[in-house]
Structure formats: structure tokens, C-alpha cells
Amino acid sequence: YIRMLGDVRVRSRAGFETERRGSHPYIDFLFIFLFFVANSEIEVSVSARNVRRLLSFQRYLRSSRFFRGITVPNSSNILDDDYNGQAKCMLEKVGNWNFDIFLFDRLTNGNSLVSLTFHLFNLHGLIEHFQLDTMKLRRFLVMVQEDYHSQNPYHNAVHAADVTQAMHCYLKEPKLSKSLTPWDVLLSLIAAATHDLDHPGVNQPFLIKTNHYLATLYKNTSVLENHHWRSAVGLLRESGLFAHMSLENRQLMESQIGDLILATDISQQNEYLSMFRSHLDRGDLCLENANHRHFILQMALKCADICNPCRTWELSKQWSEKVTEEFFHQGDIEKKYHLGVSPLCDRQTETIANIQIGFMTYLVEPLFGEWARFSNTRLSQTMLGHLGLNKASWKGVQREQSGSGDDVDPAFEEMDSDILPQEPRLS
Ligand SMILES: [Zn+2]
């Protein structure tokens, strides 16, 4: 796999080399491991040719299967009209905060991201406004959906669909809806749908300590977010969805999508939050100003990305289980290869309840508190209401498990800045 990936090139008709690169952690991890076995010095991290890999891991696997004649059962045509009808029915309430993305994903046979985003493009009049070719749009969305790793318990296309749906709810809020331009809406939906593209299912500290080529490429800074953004740009160019626009506009779109996706780096939350707070204290946000609108869209995407605890308990609980499963899976690999288990990733010492209570206290509550100051609507109150109830439920679970109710995960307590735990960076 490693050898073959190193040799793959994708070149578009225009001669432009797409910027998408595979990000599966184990490939590089194996590479490093084998390298370590073969060499006494582990100093050398990644070869230049390794960095030039251009296919996402997902797409590589598919093409590899195709050339080996292995057919993967594709059940996309087995849906009967009943399912399609129910999915359509659900889309009529796509702006509802109780929207059940898991059910929608089942009804669309695992195509929630494509179906939902296509529908939203239509609903917001973007296809007409930007004269989009619907075939190209669908192709773009299918490529986006396929480049999410379905084997990730959490960071998969359903999470992206969920974030896109939440983003749509925020775009409808009165303050935003009356000032946003079609351009703003277009960028918001694309950024939401692609914000975790080709996510490898492990976090940045893991990529850094295993000398993953992405960590080298992005100099250990917003490694995943940079990769999601560059992957999105690769797909946008490859699909030709905006080929009819001027180069200037396409470049502007790419950089603004980047600003939105990079804002989802949770380790930067403090900076964004204090900026948001200062604006609200001064009362100087003016949504006629494009820069201010853009900043609010960054905050909206940040909210959409971590809004799981603000959903109903039934939905929220499922997300909590999935994200913990992904953390613990990383911890298992770290144990197996003696890499030092990252905070929150040890299934022996952590519990879902502890992790969730820490997450809500240090990250979600401060963010949504400010969001409610900015947009004091029924939706904001609903979200804060769910947040409070869900936290109380997890505290109940925690009490049952430990016999005391006030434990906050020490990994969160150790943080001097309200960020998700980061391991010391290895340079
Ligand atoms: Zn995300």
C-alpha cells in the first residue's frame, strides 16, 4: 500500500495536480514503524515522495479494489419508494433542531450528506443564483461524501451532514438570514459539508507523534483542518463545479472556505471566543460589513461542529458514544505501539460521562453562552436547555458509576486554556 500510494498521480485535464492526499493514519504509522525496524535512527520522518501522494485513502482503496476485480456490494439502488418518500418527508423539516440525522442517513441508505446538502443548495436558491450544473453539483457532493471515512465511528459523513444541518438552522436565524448574501450561504454550506473531509479518525497529537506526513506538511499547526480544507479545494477544482466563475472569485471562495474550516480547530477556540466576547461587549458587530459577517459565520460553524450536546438526549447520547469510541480506538493503538495514551483516550480510566461533562463545561457552554448573547432566539434557548438537561443526565450517570457527582475529567481540569487536551508537541 505504501509503495503504491507513493507512486500514484492524478492529473486533471488542465494539467493541474489535485492537492488531495491520503490521510489514513495506519499507513503512515506502518511506514514509520517499518522504517524504525529497518533503521536504528528514527530521526527521518517522511520522505519527500511520501508527501506527494495525491489520492485520498478512501479513493485509493476503491480504485485498488476495482483493479483487483473485487466488487463491493453497492446497495444504492435497493431503496424502495417508501424509504425515498420518508426521506423526502424528513427534508421538509430540515430546519428543525430535532432533525434526526441518523434516521435520515438510514432512509437515504447512507447518502445523508449528498441528499441533505443538495436539498439545501436548492432550498437556498444557490443552484439558480450561481447557475450551477446539477450533475456537477451531485458529483462534487458524492466525492465529498466518499472521501469521509465510513469506518470512523464519529468523524464520518454523517457527522458532516449533521454539522451542515445545524449550519442551515443557524443561517435561518433572523439576524443572519436578513443580512447574508447568497455567496455567504454558499460558502457556509460547502465549508460545513467539507469541514472534516478525509479525517483519519485520530487527532493531531497522534499525527505529530507518529511523524505523519500531514503533520510535517502543515508544520504541526492545524494539521487536520488544513488537510480538510486542501482536500475540499481539490474536490472543488476536480468537479469543475465553479469552472464558469472567474479565477478571482474561485480563489476568493477557496480562501474563504479555508478561513471557515480553519476556525473549527478546537485548540484555537479561546482566541475566537475572546474576539466574539469583545465584539459583543462593545456591541460593534455590524452585519452589513462583509468581514463581520464572515466572522459570525466562523462562529456559527464552530457552534455547528460542537453542537452535539445541544441536541435532544436521544441524539446527543449517540454522538457521545460514537466520539468516545473513536477516542478509545486511538488509545488502543497508542497502547499497542507504546506511544503513550493521549488524554481522554484510555478506555481503562475514562468514562463517557466524565468526558462529556468536561467537554460541556469547558468548551460547549462558553461558546453557546456567547452565541445566545449574539442571537437570543428560541433556537438558542432550546440549545441551552438541551445542554443543561444533557449535562444533568451525564452527571446522573456519573453518580451511579462513581458514587459521587462532581467529578470533572482531570484531562479537562488540567487545561489552563479552555481547549481540548493537546499533548506536548514533538518538533
Ligand atoms: Zn467536525
UniProtKB/TrEMBL annotation:
List of residues binding Zn(2+) 1: 159, 195-196, 305
PROSITE patterns, A to Z: PDEASE_I_1 (PS00126), PDEASE_I_2 (PS51845)
Positions with a binding annotation for Zn(2+) 2: 196
Skewed-composition ranges (Acidic residues): 406-417
Coiled-coil ranges per UniProt: none
Keywords: cAMP, Hydrolase, Metal-binding
Assigned EC number: 3.1.4.-
Region (Disordered): 395-427
Name the UniProt record assigns to this protein: Phosphodiesterase
Family (UniProt): Belongs to the cyclic nucleotide phosphodiesterase family. PDE7 subfamily.
Single GO molecular function: 3',5'-cyclic-AMP phosphodiesterase activity
Active site: 155 (proton donor)
Details of cofactor binding: Binds 2 divalent metal cations per subunit. Site 1 may preferentially bind zinc ions, while site 2 has a preference for magnesium and/or manganese ions.
Biological processes, Gene Ontology terms: signal transduction
Pathway(s) this gene product operates in, as recorded in its UniProt entry: Purine metabolism; 3',5'-cyclic AMP degradation; AMP from 3',5'-cyclic AMP: step 1/1
Cofactor list: a divalent metal cation
Signal peptide range: none
Ranges of residues in domain PDEase: 79-401
